[in-house]
Structures are given as C-alpha cells and as structure tokens.
Amino acid sequence: MEKFLIPHSTKNSIPYKIEITSSNMMKGVSFLVTLAILALASSIASAYDPSPLQDFCVAINDIKSGVFVNGKFCKDPAMVSANDFFFSGLNIPGNTGNKVGSNVTLVNVDRLAGLNTLGISLARLDFAPYGLNPPHTHPRGTELLVVIEGTLLVGFVTSNPNKLFTKVLNKGDVFVFPIGLIHFQFNIGETAALAFAGLSSQNPGVITIANAVFGSVPPINPDVLIKAFQLDKNVVEYLQKAFAPN
C-alpha cells in the first residue's frame, strides 16, 4: 500500500505533514463516482414524457392546423376568477332509471376548468336497489371510492393471471381501484346507495367493457368475438345489437 506525505500548515502554526494512503484515495474517488452516477440518474428520472390526458394526441408539424394539446390551453391568469374553481350540483341525485340502475356524475376538467394540470377529478355515483356500475376501467386514473349510503359489492381484477379482489362496503368504508384495472360497483341492498369517488387525473377516461367490446363503432368483426369469448354466432350478434349505440 502506497503512502503520500502532503505538506500542510496553517497561519500561526508549525508546519506538519498529512499522511494519505492509496486506499483512502481510492475510497474518495469511488465516492465521487457514485455521487456523479446518482446525479445523472436523478436527471434522467426527471426527464420523462408527460402522462397522456386524453386517449391520443397525434403530432402535427403545421401548428396552425393543430386543434388539441395534451390537456387544455391555459387561461390568462389576469382573467381567472373564483368561478373557474367552482362547481355546483353534486347534491342532486343522478337518474338511475336505466338498464343498469346506476348513474355517474363526473366533475372533470371539462366541467371544472380549474382542474387543468392538477391531476384530480371527482364523481358522484348513484345506485338504484340492485343497481350496477358495470365492469369498466379508467385508463388514466386510480379511483378512491367512499360509500355515503347503502351497501356495495365492489371489486377489481388484476392483469394476467386475473386475480379478483372484492369486498362488501358499508357506509363510511373506502376502497381503492388501481389505475387501468377492470373494476365494478354493485348495490346489493334493497335501498338506494350513494358513493363519491376521487380520481387521480383531470380526465381519467372510462371504458365500459361490454359497451366497448360489443358496441364499438364500427362493430368488431363477429368472428373475432366468437373466438375470443367462445360464444355461438347468434349470441354474439344478439349482444352486438343489444349494445349498439342508439
């Protein structure tokens, strides 16, 4: 092991020498290299693409022909008022007189402009007795649900191998549905139910599975659905008619 003697003195002191070994020098070099790597990793980690705020945003070279951005254009701060951060109406029950017996009132950036860039939205969920919010996904948001009235059977399914996590929720209970996973809420009570949900996107989006698969425009080729769901052709045709948009 090599040793180095470095002259050292301070004002009004007797000169002396510091002994530094080669091993100590290597430790110092290793520390500096590690520090440099961490700094580089930190800069790379912060240089990521922004999360999408809509289904797609196709690039265009001619900005005069562009009509959308990833999100919304920002209002001049000098023109902003308290009303830009205000929404009224979530005290009003949604109409559950439909085939599934549920209604979702979503307050996203399209209804509350002040949500733009804040990464959050809110929804009111009303359920008739035995009403269902059918299996669906939010491609851009995690959902945090709290039951206000009634009893809900809720659950979500993971990616392959498709494990189901399910729970019966009562008044005051909270359940989280991870981003992008198929989930549902079903009122198993004989009375109406009410819940509120926060979502981690200003525009979380929703894909209702049955509607997307059997009610797309234009329709998915029946042969694809016959093979995918192992159903008879007549059943697939019936389902496509049942879910066809009005």
Major sheet attributes = 5 strands, antiparallel
Uncertain residue ranges: 40-47
Q: Mean pLDDT, as a whole number?
A: 86
H-E string? EEHEEEEEEEEEEHHH
Q: What radius of gyration results from the CA coordinates? A: 29 Å
Structural class call reads alpha+beta
Walk across the major sheet and give the strand order.
3-4-11-6-9
Strand percentage:
25-35%
Number of helices: 4
Q: Which word captures the global form?
A: globular
Give the helix proportion (percent range): 10-25%
| Oligomer category | single chain
Q: Could you list some keywords that capture this structure?
A:
246 residues; alpha+beta; 5-stranded antiparallel sheet; 4 helices; 28% strand
Secondary-structure blueprint of this entry?
Blueprint: E1 3-8, E2 16-21, H1 22-45, E3 102-107, E4 121-127, E5 132-137, E6 143-149, E7 152-157, E8 164-169, E9 174-177, E10 182-187, E11 193-199, E12 207-208, H2 209-214, H3 222-229, H4 233-243
Antiparallel strand pairs: 1-2, 3-4, 4-11, 5-10, 5-12, 6-9, 6-11, 7-8, 7-10
